[in-house]
């Protein structure tokens, strides 16, 4: 239902994604029935608390979920092709080439026993068939692009010789080496110092314009969302509970969970009043994903919960133009038919 | 935010299921998992403990009940009935001196089990003591550990062989020789646990608040040592059984008059190309017993410390 | 690096000293008169006296230890009581078969065990993994001489593919030399393969969960590249360490394997020396094996830098 926006087919169209894991004490339904799309060149943020399934979603898109114990179902259409139907070989040709990924932990996401140049060059050799020397030249170029000083020297160094910020730059260089159409960034700035965070975000924004890639940004940091995203998907307990353009979401959140999340962001200037400085917390815990939830997934923590919520799972419904939410009680605004 | 806030007053009646759009139910893409509890569940989740422990109990029963299991005197010589093939009369055949291999193999279980358990017990106790001393007494640590390193540099079978070469063969000496070779491993393990625990804040606090060393050992160190030590003792039991058989096999172990699996094989060695069964039956029993102990060890390790399970 | 190597080499000296002291003292920590023990039950008092004199048992303990170490440093391991030949000569005569057996076993075991462990880790939880783990626990459980007899029975006696026993010197052709060593090497390798395969699997399982493996997958690296380049190089240090530690198993196993396959090597020499209570020979062989073991592990320690750039000395 969300694919109604653009006239042309979206770059990525995820339909009814389910990613479940078999564990010794039950099936963990980490992502359950998630649908969303990303248009070419667009930046979409997926937000939610830790454990809501946002990282699993990003891993599912590239089919990086180990199967077994995991299992992915649904459709992941990238440029019209269902990634879930591709062979392993066809999938490998897409990874790092058309779709690439940046991970949260720059400290551990680079291979400690291979040089930086080798790791960037590997992508180029795999997907563009470059020779060793060409790959190294291109790696140096990429390092320069992401703003690493003395790239000719750094290219021969090992990750442990670089700082955290530099490593994340290397990750970005690696991800962008083959000019991907879609970049999935899983908490790209979470592990970094605040000043470095800003630099990396600037870099991503800058490169996005240069390369023209669409970005799926996975984060729990609403500040980051406000800064870079165009559209936001809010996830809770493995499902999408709300989706809206970024301004609309911040100004008029429909779902009680989103309202809670936004309440949890300290507002600039509010410290003067002294009342709202405390982060609003959402009481309660995320429900166990190992038991089937019959009603609304947020019912256990929702301040406005009714018996109806516990009995009937709300469908995602349009509540305003380009704005959907899954709550029985979220008001629908009048929309032009 | 006000537009989306629910104001019950604006509704004429509470919403009912008929008024709202329900999300389509989602299918299960994986079959459900059923968790079992109780002893059956435990054994199902730890099949190696079940198999290893079961086999172990069976072999212990055989060793204890050997006289009742249709055996004859395992040392009775009968030169007239030498090297008979296995038959209804002699289930596993007879050896060069006409002794019944079946009876010898069953009684042989006793030697292996006694050696295995005794070495496991003594090396655990001695190793624990040395490890504790070395972990707590700073000045002793350097010396003790150098000595242990030195002993560990001598391949353990070779060390046991060397020790046995100088003493008269007896089950007691076999146990002693293998124990000496195994002690360094245990003391290293215990010392490692002590040193890592000493770094723990709660042990630090206990030391700072003046808790006596014996109390710290009793309260904090021993409970944490027990799990890895049990696992280690199981493995030592298995390797001691193999060591005993090797010592006996090369003629430096249990005295030939006592039927042990190594001895039976050593005696069958000269004839193994023509009468392979004399070597075969004790070999199978020995391998099965060691396998049982090893499976038990693996199972205990996985159960007691799932994290350790990933290491070796 | 060089300074570190030097420091490591110096650090092995106390270990070797403890080994030497221990091996030397073995003779004296045993109960009773060592000369009488060595001479055996049927010895005459004259025999005992002769042995006592040849061992220098009439002089103080530490003096004797000093003399002994001095001799060893000069390459003199003493004289056999039984053959009256220098122990070093006897060892030199017997070293080729043992060295051949151990080198072949080592190469064979590493070539089989590492891929086995890698595949088991890759296919974790499948029947392949279970088969490898079952093989490993069997390798630990079935004693080397049992494997030896089984192999000899099947492949030499029944199928007649390979020689049952014996050894052909390398100088007489690589073919016969190798043929004679296949069965002993497989028998000796069993427990070693089990050990290496298990540590490889365990380390690979840990490495395969690391974030950088996920990164490599996300880059489109194929399964082989993931396993053998990205993961194995990270797993190398523990694997190589265990390969070194496992040499102790090879040494202990060689003694037995040589008896089973009638290989005239150091293992046979040890067993014969034990049966004859030829103590200088026993001491010499144990000392040689232990020093070899210490040196192998020293070399492996120094090799770590090749596998992991984070290790800097």
Structure commentary:
Chain B: One of its GO terms (cellular component) is plasma membrane. Chain B: Its main location: membrane. Chain B: Residues 113-297 form the ABC transmembrane type-1 domain. Chain B: One of its GO terms (biological process) is transmembrane transport. The complex is a heterotrimer of chains A (337), B (312) and C (313). Chain A is an alpha/beta fold and 337 residues long. Chain A has helices at residues 54-61, 88-94, 116-128, 132-145, 151-154, 164-176, 194-211, 222-228, 246-251, 256-263, 307-311, and strands spanning 12-23, 26-38, 43-47, 70-78, 81-82, 99-102, 182-186, 214-219, 231-236, 239-245, 317-320, 323-325. Chain A has an 8-stranded mixed β-sheet, with helices on both faces. A 4-stranded antiparallel β-sheet of chain A has the order 2-1-4-5. The model of chain A is unreliable at 1-6 and 268-279 (pLDDT under 50). With 312 residues, chain B is mainly alpha-helical. Chain B contains 10 helices and no strands. In chain B, α2 packs across α3 (101-136). With 313 residues, chain C is mostly helical. In chain C, 78% of the residues lie in helices and 0% in strands. Chain C has 13 helices and no strands. The N and C termini of chain C lie close together (5 Å). The chains are: A alpha/beta (337), B mainly alpha (312), C mainly alpha (313). The interface between A and C is medium-sized, with 30 and 23 residues.
Short synopsis of the structure:
By secondary structure, chain B is mainly α.
């Amino acid at each position: 239902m969300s694919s109604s926006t653009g006239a042309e087919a979206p770059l990525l169209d995820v339909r009814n994604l389910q990613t479940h894991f078999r564990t010794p004490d039950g099936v963990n339904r980490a992502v359950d029935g998630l649908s969303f799309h990303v248009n070419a060149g667009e930046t979409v943020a997926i937000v939610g608390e830790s454990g809501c399934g946002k990282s699993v979603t990003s891993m599912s898109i590239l089919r990086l979920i180990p199967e077994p114990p995991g299992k992915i179902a649904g459709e992941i259409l990238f440029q019209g092709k269902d990634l879930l139907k591709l062979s392993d070989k066809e999938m490998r040709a897409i990874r790092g080439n058309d779709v690439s990924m940046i991970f949260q932990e720059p400290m551990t996401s680079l291979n400690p026993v291979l040089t930086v140049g080798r790791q960037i060059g590997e992508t180029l050799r795999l997907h563009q068939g470059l020779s060793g020397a060409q790959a190294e030249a291109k790696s140096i170029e990429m390092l320069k692009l992401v703003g690493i000083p003395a790239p000719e020297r750094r290219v021969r160094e090992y990750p442990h010789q670089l700082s955290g910020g530099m490593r994340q730059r290397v990750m970005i260089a690696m991800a962008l080496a083959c000019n991907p159409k879609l970049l999935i960034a899983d908490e790209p700035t979470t592990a970094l110092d605040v000043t470095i965070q800003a630099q990396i975000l600037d870099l991503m924004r800058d490169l996005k314009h240069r390369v023209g890639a669409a970005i799926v940004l996975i984060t729990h940091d609403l500040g980051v969302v406000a800064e870079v995203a165009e559209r936001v998907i809010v996830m809770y307990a493995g499902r999408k509970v709300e989706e809206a353009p970024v301004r609309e979401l911040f100004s008029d959140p429909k779902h009680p969970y989103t309202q809670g999340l936004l309440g949890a962001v300290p507002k600039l200037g509010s410290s003067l009043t002294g009342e709202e400085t405390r982060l609003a917390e959402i009481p309660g815990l995320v429900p166990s994903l190992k038991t089937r939830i019959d009603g609304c997934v947020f019912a256990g923590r929702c301040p406005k919960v009714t018996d109806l919520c516990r009995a009937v799972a709300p469908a995602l419904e349009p509540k305003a133009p380009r704005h959907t939410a899954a709550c029985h009680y979220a008001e629908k605004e009048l929309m032009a038919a | 935010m006000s537009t989306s806030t629910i104001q019950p007053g604006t509704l004429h009646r509470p919403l009912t299921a008929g008024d709202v759009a329900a999300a389509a139910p989602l299918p299960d893409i994986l079959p459900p998992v059923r968790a079992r509890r109780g002893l059956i569940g435990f054994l199902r989740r730890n099949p190696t403990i079940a198999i290893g422990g079961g086999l172990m109990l069976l072999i212990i029963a055989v060793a204890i009940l050997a006289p009742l299991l249709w055996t004859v005197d395992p040392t009775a010589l009968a030169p007239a009935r030498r090297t008979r093939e296995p038959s209804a009369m002699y289930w596993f055949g007879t050896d060069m001196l006409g002794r019944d291999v079946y009876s010898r193999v069953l009684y042989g279980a006793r030697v292996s089990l006694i050696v295995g358990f005794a070495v496991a017990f003594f090396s655990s106790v001695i190793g624990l003591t040395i490890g504790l001393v070395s972990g707590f007494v700073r000045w002793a640590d350097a010396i003790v550990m150098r000595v242990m390193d030195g002993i560990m540099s001598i391949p353990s079978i070779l060390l046991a062989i060397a020790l046995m070469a100088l003493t008269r063969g007896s089950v007691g000496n076999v146990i002693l020789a293998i124990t000496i070779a195994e002690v360094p491993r245990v003391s290293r393990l215990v010392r490692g646990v002590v040193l890592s625990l000493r770094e723990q804040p709660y042990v630090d606090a206990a030391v700072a608040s003046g808790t006596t060393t014996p109390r710290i050992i009793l309260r904090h160190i021993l409970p944490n040592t027990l799990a890895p030590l049990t696992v280690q003792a199981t493995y030592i039991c298995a390797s001691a059984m193999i060591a005993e058989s090797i010592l006996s096999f090369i003629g430096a172990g249990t005295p030939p008059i006592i039927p042990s699996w190594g001895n039976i094989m050593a005696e069958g060695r000269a004839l193994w190309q023509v009468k392979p069964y004399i070597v075969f039956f004790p070999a199978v029993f020995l391998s099965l017993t060691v396998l049982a102990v090893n499976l038990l060890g693996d199972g205990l390790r996985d159960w007691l410390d799932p994290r350790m399970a990933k290491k070796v | 690096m060089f300074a570190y190597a030097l420091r490591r080499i110096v650090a092995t000296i106390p270990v070797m000293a403890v080994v030497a002291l221990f091996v030397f003292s073995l003779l004296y920590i045993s109960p009773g008169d060592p000369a009488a023990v060595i001479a055996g039950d049927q010895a005459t008092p004259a025999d005992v006296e002769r042995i006592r004199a040849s061992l220098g048992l009439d002089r103080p303990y530490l003096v004797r230890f000093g003399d002994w170490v001095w001799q060893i440093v000069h390459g003199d391991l003493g004289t056999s009581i039984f053959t009256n030949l220098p122990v070093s000569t006897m060892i030199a005569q017997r070293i080729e078969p043992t060295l051949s057996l151990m080198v072949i076993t080592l190469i064979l075991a590493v070539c089989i065990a590492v891929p086995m462990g890698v595949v088991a880790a890759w296919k974790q939880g499948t029947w392949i993994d279970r088969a490898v783990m079952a093989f490993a626990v069997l390798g630990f459980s079935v004693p080397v001489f049992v494997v030896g007899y089984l192999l000899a029975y099947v492949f030499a006696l029944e199928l007649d593919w390979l020689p049952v026993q014996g050894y052909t010197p390398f100088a007489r052709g690589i073919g016969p030399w190798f043929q004679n060593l296949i069965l002993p090497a497989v028998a000796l390798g069993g427990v070693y393969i089990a050990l290496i395969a298990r540590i490889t699997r365990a380390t690979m399982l840990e490495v395969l969960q690391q974030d950088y493996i996920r990164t490599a997958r996300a880059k489109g690296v194929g399964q082989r590249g993931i396993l053998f380049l990205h993961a194995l190089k990270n797993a190398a240090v523990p694997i190589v360490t265990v390969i070194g530690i496992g040499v102790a198993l090879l040494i202990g196993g060689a003694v037995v394997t040589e008896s089973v396959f009638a290989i005239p090597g150091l293992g046979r020499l040890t067993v014969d020396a034990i049966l004859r209570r030829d103590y200088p020979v026993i001491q010499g062989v144990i000392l040689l094996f232990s020093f070899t073991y210490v040196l192998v592990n020293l070399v492996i320690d120094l090799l770590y830098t090749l596998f992991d750039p984070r290790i800097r000395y």
